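USER:
Make up one protein:

ASSISTANT:
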Amino acid sequence: MVDKDKLRLNYIDGEWIECDSKETFENWNPADNEDLIGHHQYSNEEDVFKAVKAAKSAEKVWSDIPAAKRGRFLKTISELLEKRKDEFTKTITREEGKTLDESTGEVKRAVDIFQYYSVKAKEIGGDIKSANENDKLLYTIKEPLGTVGLITPWNYPLAIPSWKIAPALAAGNTIVFKPASLAPETSRKLIECIDESGIPKGVINYITGSGSTVGSAITIHPDIDAVSFTGSLNVGKKVREDAARSGKRVQTEMGGKNPTLIMESADINKAVDIVKNGAFGVTGQACTATSRAIVHKKIYDDFISKLIEKIENIKVGPGLENPDMGPQVSEEELQSTLDFIKIGLEEGAILETGGNELDTGYFSKGHFIEPTVFSNVKPDMAIAQEEIFGPVLSVIKIHSFEEAIKVANSVIYGLSASIVTKDLSEANRFVNEIESGVVKINEKTTGLELHVPFGGLKDSSSKTWREQGESALDFYTISKTVYMNY
């Protein structure tokens, strides 16, 4: 029986409506299996058709609004998010599991994103070029693509939708948006803010449901002009192939196996903090999370000793109590992490700390696990090659900078990578030789500035357009060249 007070609706053509099937799915707090957040719409292809039709009909209305005026809508959205920041913080924590501090940071990020693109909207234009004749003006203008499909993951349920939606709107596109089914409530509240901004109906449309049904229907729909996807590697590859097959512009971000190199000259205490925060912040559920610590042999034992001391002091608990680390987002994600821990033990890695599910007493209602560290990890082990997406760190011993780079580059991913060193030569060589889209010196692999490009190499991204900053506007616009003979 659906609790009507917790019934959540799709948003299509400016109206909150039930899906075609009238079916719903449940959204639960990962720290408390008695806390039902809502019943969300289990949409199908018919709902996608309605959303695309609405978005297509709104294209001219939205694109005809001058970019500077579109920016005013984004500024209003930013202000509405700021006004409801405490509500958003609690919602992210309830449905995704982040600590309150982590959720607060995500809300601030979303506020800043909409503010940033409200200003950048005014700068969307083109270039004037020199022509071959004196009586000719040669210039370019940038126009929106049309209608774009946005498919987002659960781990940053406000920030990632924001950094896709804001530049798409600023550029003049209409949107069909599908959030992840594990965290649809936060993005629903974001749509409430967008609706309250007074944006014309049909400009943004929000549909919940399965990726295999709703996501696929968005990707292959002939009236969707571009698709932006963030999620798993296997799904991302299918999205990329399906979108490209129908001639769509596509960008995908599909995860990482991010290394931090700890060199002989490193300040060990600083290195320990960098790795701890990069690996176990947001419960390791970030595409940029530190998954491998690649440590020089001369400081290897000292590093592990100091790291374990720090890790064993991490307090785990429900995010609403603001511990150091919250739960995993679902039973399925928790089980996947436990399976990798078992594989690591079978492969011969040494379990230094953690590795156990926390499921008794205080933890019995949620999906909790201890922060976990493996040593004696070989570069070809599964736990050193595959994305785990949980609080598990593999520590690998190396003998030289050259070996460290070789190990760091030995995976199919290339999203974020960092090095801890006092050697300027090593730092510069790292920048040049690491196969990664994000490169950090003496910083953790997580954490991104919103005004610079974000994306990876190899199987981490689609090698097309970057997200964030001005690069995002490049993805959502297309150039027109004008020859004006006067």
Notes: The mean pLDDT is 97. The two ends are 70 Å apart (CA to CA).
